């Protein structure tokens, strides 16, 4: 299986300046799954020859614009321009229904074009070809935010989107080979509802079965200027877990025996 990142940025200020792109990531396993299509997801996908018409499913963790902005346009891709009823949407309640302060992130027109819609909560399980996705909890300002743990034939892959640290996080994601997490803040700069570098150290240190690779994504402005690569090195030194920072075009290939990294070359549109 493989994962291609279409961005590594998150938070308001990185998003509006695009100092890091905010397209989320693409996961190719027994199904083609797009995860958190933030602003630029469609444009960045084509840069790496990821064709949205070949998607089988879209996962949207919550109704914040840096995670869900391109949901409708990616659904248009998946449904071949709304000409075919196809594809699966797996999303938080807030994405599909909206909440007190947000309209839904997807119109009825787009919802009607989908084959299956799962408005999920922690503990739910969804079969995706030969893989199984377990929905995991988050503690975030959007209280319906969800993450996942995907069981594949190459092992477990975890996605921890925006969340504050909570005790169960470690237990839920223990034993995953790869963990991708929104680590918004560097050391000594905690804010509510987001993970900091200390939280990650605490989580990984405590895991008996540690991941082979930890990927920091959703780099916020404070992290961007604090030097995320140094922060990643710190996590790696203290926990012994190989830690990297996501970037646009990074491909992570996972086989039974090894995990390899490559930076793909973008193609530019004229
Ligand atoms: Zn958020």
UniProtKB/TrEMBL annotation:
Keyword Transit peptide listed: no
GO molecular function, one term: hydrolase activity
CDD domains: metallo-hydrolase-like_MBL-fold (cd07741)
Lineage: superkingdom: Archaea
SUPFAM superfamilies: Metallo-hydrolase/oxidoreductase
Any matching Pfam family: Lactamase_B_2
Domain Metallo-beta-lactamase: 32-218
Protein name: Metal dependent hydrolase
């Amino acid at each position: 299986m493989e994962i291609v990142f279409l961005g590594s940025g998150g938070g308001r200020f990185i998003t509006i300046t695009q100092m890091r792109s905010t397209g989320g990531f693409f996961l190719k396993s027994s199904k083609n799954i797009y995860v958190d299509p933030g602003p630029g997801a469609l444009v960045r996908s084509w840069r790496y020859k990821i064709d949205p018409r070949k998607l089988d499913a879209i996962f949207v963790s919550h109704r914040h614009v840096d995670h869900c902005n391109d949901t409708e346009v990616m659904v248009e891709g998946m449904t071949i321009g709304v000409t075919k009823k196809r594809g699966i949407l797996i999303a938080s309640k807030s994405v599909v229904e909206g909440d007190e302060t947000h309209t839904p992130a997807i119109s009825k027109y787009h919802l009607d074009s989908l084959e299956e819609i799962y408005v999920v909560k922690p503990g739910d399980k969804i079969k995706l070809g030969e893989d199984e996705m377990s929905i995991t909890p988050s503690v975030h300002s959007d209280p319906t935010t969800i993450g996942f743990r995907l069981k594949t034939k190459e092992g477990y892959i975890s996605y921890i989107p925006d969340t504050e640290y909570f005790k169960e996080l470690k237990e839920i994601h223990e034993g995953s080979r790869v963990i991708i997490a929104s680590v918004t803040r560097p050391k000594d700069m905690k804010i509510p509802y987001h993970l900091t570098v200390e939280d990650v150290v605490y989580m990984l240190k405590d895991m008996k079965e540690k991941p082979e690779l930890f990927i920091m994504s959703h780099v916020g402005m404070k992290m961007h200027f604090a030097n995320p690569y140094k922060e990643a090195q710190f996590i790696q030194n203290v926990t012994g877990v190989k830690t990297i920072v996501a970037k646009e075009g990074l491909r992570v290939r996972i086989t039974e025996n090894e995990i390899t990294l490559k930076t793909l070359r973008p193609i530019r549109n004229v």
